[in-house]
Amino acid sequence: MDGIRDWWEQRSEGQMTKYRRPPYPYCPWCAAPLPEEDPFRQECASCGFVLYHNSSPCVGAIPRDEYGRVLLARRAIDPYRGDWNTVGGFLRYGEDPIEGLKREVREELGVDCEVRDFILMGADTYGPDGPALLNAYFSVRLLSGRLRARDDIDACRWFAPDGLPDNIAFESDRQALRALFRKVKRPLGRGEEA
Predict the structure, then answer these.
(1) The domain containing residue 159 runs over which residues?
(2) Same-domain pairing of 118 and 129
(3) Most buried pick, 52, 75, 86, 117, via CB within 10 A?
């Protein structure tokens, strides 16, 4: 374990600023000790399994209404229980990102959606000391149905761009909202629709 602590203390400035977990001590397949030299890739000398430390892929939907408001969801789980964030979550293993986004909207709001535009891809962590995330955000149009908070949210609410709550859970959510508002304020190009 001293190798992990040494690496953690001596990592270079700017490197891995969002990566909060050191390498794992044991192989998840055979339980043999894993080398600690590389914090991103650990190859088991016993069985050959390679453990890559990658960011978990996530998707976020930002619904907009005819008044330009955005729909945010209040978290009912940790981290950041009670704070607001975009509708979305973790992709399942091998899941198509657009299908995963639609699934998350159905799970959390109980309605289907139409994916409109890509907004932003941003890195973050799942809580202050959580694992690394890679979030892809999209604007969506909600299809007919009654909105109801489900799954891991306990409320959803429409917010005007100048009336967003102060307690937005994730920095990447804030980045995506800023990017969306910049995008919708720019003049439309020839042939573009609002």
Answers:
(1) 56-185
(2) yes
(3) 86
